[in-house]
């Protein structure tokens, strides 16, 4: 997606060969106009899949998931990272290990909001090692729902997450795919035919 790639080139900051900082429009300050375009793009790509729910993970997945839900006219559920006193005991839970933070988080979704009739689109801001996506997939499986695909804003294609998910036969749509962050430069994956 050209708009997102331009934003990354202009306002992203390469922190290291593996980390891209996008606090100016995704992770701290949010660009709602960009998020609206992102929502429309995902809605276009996944229209016709009969999506009934969008599932993301707090906190940075919520803004793009919300806009996608608006364009697809379906509810958005965000998995919580810790048990909340106001969630009841009927929870699907999964363990998500973060290589970046070197810690594990339990994520949880109430049984009330996903069931076996649902066709779920998983959405998240980054795809790195794929642990967050696998945790969300595990929740979809526990609900007996169908996973129709995964939408990602920024895929770090030099990490293994995307390949692992696609090897499972899952449709993964990433709006920006980064081949490398070496030497302080963002190099996007070349598009075939572009
Ligand atoms: P994984 O889920 O693909 O395995 O990724 P990883 O454990 O490496 O990611 C842990 C957290 O760091 C996630 O956010 C993820 O979105 C974020 N992340 C991963 N790589 C990058 C990067 O290059 N740049 C930025 N800005 N973030 C990255 P989180 O802990 O769930 O936090 P939140 O922002 O959603 O609250
Ligand atoms: Na995230
Ligand atoms: Na994040």
From TrEMBL:
Its EC number is 2.4.2.22. Xanthine binds at residues 20, 27, 156. InterPro entries: PRTase-like, PRTase_dom, Pur/Pyrimidine_PRTase, Xanthine_PRibTrfase. It comes from the Bacteria. It catalyses: XMP + diphosphate = xanthine + 5-phospho-alpha-D-ribose 1-diphosphate. Converts the preformed base xanthine, a product of nucleic acid breakdown, to xanthosine 5'-monophosphate (XMP), so it can be reused for RNA or DNA synthesis. Belongs to the purine/pyrimidine phosphoribosyltransferase family. Xpt subfamily. This is Xanthine phosphoribosyltransferase. It comes from Halobacillus kuroshimensis. The gene is xpt.
């Amino acid at each position: 997606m050209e708009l997102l790639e331009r934003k990354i080139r202009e306002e992203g900051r390469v922190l290291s060969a593996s980390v891209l900082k996008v606090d100016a429009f995704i992770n701290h300050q949010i660009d709602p106009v960009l998020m609206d375009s992102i929502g429309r793009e995902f809605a276009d790509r996944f229209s016709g899949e009969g999506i009934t729910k969008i599932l993301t993970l707090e906190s940075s997945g919520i803004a793009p998931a919300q806009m996608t839900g608006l364009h697809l006219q379906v509810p958005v559920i965000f998995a919580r990272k810790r048990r909340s006193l106001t969630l009841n005991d009927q929870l699907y839970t999964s363990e998500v290990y973060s290589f970046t933070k070197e810690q594990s988080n339990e994520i949880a979704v109430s049984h009330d909001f996903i069931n076996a009739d649902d066709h779920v689109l998983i959405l998240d801001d980054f795809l790195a090692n794929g642990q967050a996506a696998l945790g969300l997939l595990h929740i979809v499986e526990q609900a007996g729902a169908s996973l129709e695909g995964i939408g990602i804003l920024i895929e770090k294609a030099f990490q293994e997450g995307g390949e692992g998910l696609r090897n499972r036969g899952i449709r993964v749509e990433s709006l920006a795919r980064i081949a490398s962050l070496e030497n302080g430069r963002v190099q996007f994956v070349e598009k075939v035919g572009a």
